[in-house]
């Protein structure tokens, strides 16, 4: 770790300018006119320096679906997007429902070195929704699991959901719910409305999401526990969460970049890159999600990075898999959706994409302001450029991005994980250079 790096003339989230000296995995000094003696200088004139982004919702696919992504390739995608930590969803094979599997994912993350990987534990055995998984053993394992989710599936049984909320209180855990009432969404393919009728695709009603969120916030209140709502996608969900927070219920919520940016009309061409769970919704929903993020009803942005092999997407809409990759494009899409129009500023971005997701996941060492003494998890971003987003911008295995060919603002220039550059000059560095072991 002996490397010294001097980042010169960066602009912080609050607009102030500073140099940053990194050494032994920490920011050791800030201020202007720092000496670069013995350090590798990096010119950050005109670049933002922000705390490394933290994704509370990433699908790394390993173990079991390595043709889609691995911990190594997924964390390379994370680094490319300015992320220094990701929470890895449990819908792998085997499912991350035991201490053994979460420790394996943790170790794979440590070996890769591109980002801090915090495994999420399944709520129920095999995501089957029948019996609670060994939540306590996962919490006490070396992976120190604090976030539990059956994501991909909803914990639809209210008694199991109640028990899970009760159980995780003992170790300050949180249940992250994929809110989808299964009986209301059987065979669902896109948002339910006039357009789903026209296209002949089975609709996915907003109430399927909203009814589960309403139930769960009341359960969280009843047992006095923490609830997190994954990928909120409708205006009505924002209303329910706003009501719950006003009532003092301990609920947090996330929105994805794609739900802040894209609408259901994209389904018109039956291009399965736009098929995602929950589905893209109406313009009114996008507006409500943006407003909810701006007023704090929605706490964070999380990518729901969901890589799939080409064959799972290059097929008929009905047969295609749900999901989009999102780590590499996340900040650009958020910039286009809520920063460039003045709804959020860069300090808000540091909060919703770094500090708050770290706090929800009880992750230390990420998300704090860039001050002397803090771990050197940060990235440099140029918000002034724009680029045509292409497969060259994707650093993971998945190419199922809805943004290919679109012009997006901003570019990640460099990322530092624990003081080491994982991205330099806009390019993800080789594994040996990031200090990977194993
Ligand atoms: N978002 C998706 O469309 N797909 C996710 C599952 C999920 O997040 O629900 C996946 O695992 O592929
Ligand atoms: Zn989900
Ligand atoms: Zn997901």
UniProtKB/TrEMBL annotation:
**Amino-acid positions noted as binding Zn(2+) 2 in the UniProt annotation, renumbered to this chain:** 151, 178, 231
What InterPro entries does UniProt report for this protein, alphabetically?
A: DHOase, DHOase/Allantoinase_Hydrolase, DHOase_cat, Dihydroorotase_CS, Metal-dep_hydrolase_composite, Metal_Hydrolase
Q: Which SUPFAM superfamilies does the entry link to?
A: Composite domain of metallo-dependent hydrolases, Metallo-dependent hydrolases
For this chain's record, the cofactor binding note is:
Binds 2 Zn(2+) ions per subunit.
Q: Does the keyword Isomerase apply?
A: no
Source species, domain of life = Bacteria
| Active site residues according to the UniProt entry | 304
What are the binding positions for Zn(2+) 1 in this chain? 57, 59, 151, 304
Enzyme Commission code? 3.5.2.3
Task: List ligand-binding residues for substrate.
Answer: 59-61, 91, 277, 308, 322-323
Keywords, A to Z?
Hydrolase, Metal-binding, Pyrimidine biosynthesis, Zinc
Pfam families in alphabetical order: DHOase (PF12890)
GO MF entries: dihydroorotase activity
Report domain Dihydroorotase catalytic positions.
48-235
Which cofactors are required for activity?
Zn(2+)
Catalysis: reaction(s): (S)-dihydroorotate + H2O = N-carbamoyl-L-aspartate + H(+)
- Pathway the protein takes part in: Pyrimidine metabolism; UMP biosynthesis via de novo pathway; (S)-dihydroorotate from bicarbonate: step 3/3
Reported function: Catalyzes the reversible cyclization of carbamoyl aspartate to dihydroorotate.
Family the UniProt entry places it in: Belongs to the metallo-dependent hydrolases superfamily. DHOase family. Class I DHOase subfamily.
Annotated protein name in UniProt: Dihydroorotase
Whose protein is this, by species?
Leifsonia virtsii
The lineage is: Bacteria, Bacillati, Actinomycetota, Actinomycetes, Micrococcales
Query: Which gene is annotated as encoding this protein in its UniProt record?
Result: pyrC
């Amino acid at each position: 770790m002996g490397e010294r790096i001097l980042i010169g003339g960066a602009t912080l989230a609050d607009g102030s300018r500073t140099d940053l000296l990194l050494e032994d995995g920490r920011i050791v000094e800030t201020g202007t006119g720092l000496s670069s003696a013995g350090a590798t200088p990096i010119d950050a004139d005109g670049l933002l320096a922000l705390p490394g982004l933290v994704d509370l919702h990433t699908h790394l696919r390993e173990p079991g679906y390595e043709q889609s992504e691995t911990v190594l390739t997924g964390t390379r995608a994370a680094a490319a997007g300015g992320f220094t930590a990701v929470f890895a969803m449990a819908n792998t094979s085997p499912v991350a429902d035991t201490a053994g599997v979460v420790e394996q994912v943790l170790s794979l993350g440590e070996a890769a070195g591109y980002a801090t990987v915090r495994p999420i534990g399944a709520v129920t055995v095999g995501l089957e929704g029948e019996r609670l998984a060994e939540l306590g053993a996962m919490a006490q394992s070396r992976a120190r699991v604090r976030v539990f989710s059956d994501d991909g599936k909803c914990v639809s049984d209210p008694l199991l959901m109640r028990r899970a909320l009760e159980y995780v209180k003992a170790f300050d855990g949180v249940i992250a719910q994929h809110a989808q009432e299964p009986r209301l969404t059987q065979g669902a393919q896109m948002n339910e409305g006039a357009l789903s009728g026209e296209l002949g695709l089975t609709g996915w009603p907003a109430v399927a999401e909203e009814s589960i969120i309403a139930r769960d916030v009341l359960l969280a209140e009843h047992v006095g526990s923490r609830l997190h709502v994954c990928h909120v996608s409708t205006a009505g969900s924002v209303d329910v969460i706003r009501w719950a927070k006003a009532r003092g219920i301990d609920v947090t919520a996330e929105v994805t970049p794609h739900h802040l940016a894209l609408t259901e009309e994209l389904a018109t061409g039956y291009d399965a890159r736009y098929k995602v769970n929950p589905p893209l919704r109406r313009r009114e929903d996008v507006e409500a999600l943006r407003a909810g993020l701006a007023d704090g009803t929605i706490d964070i942005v999380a990518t729901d990075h969901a890589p799939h092999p080409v064959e799972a997407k290059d097929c008929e809409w009905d047969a295609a898999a749900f999901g989009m990759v999102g780590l590499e494009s996340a900040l650009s899409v958020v910039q286009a959706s809520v920063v460039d129009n003045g709804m959020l500023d860069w300090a808000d971005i540091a909060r919703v994409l770094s500090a708050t997701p770290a706090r929800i996941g009880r992750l230390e060492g990420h998300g704090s302001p860039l001050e002397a003494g803090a771990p050197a998890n940060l990235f440099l971003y140029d918000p002034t450029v724009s680029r045509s987003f292409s497969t060259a911008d994707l650093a993971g295995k998945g190419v199922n991005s809805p943004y290919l060919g679109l012009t997006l603002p901003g570019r990640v220039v460099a990322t530092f994980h624990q003081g080491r550059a994982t991205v330099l000059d806009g390019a993800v560095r080789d594994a040996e250079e990031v200090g990977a072991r194993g």
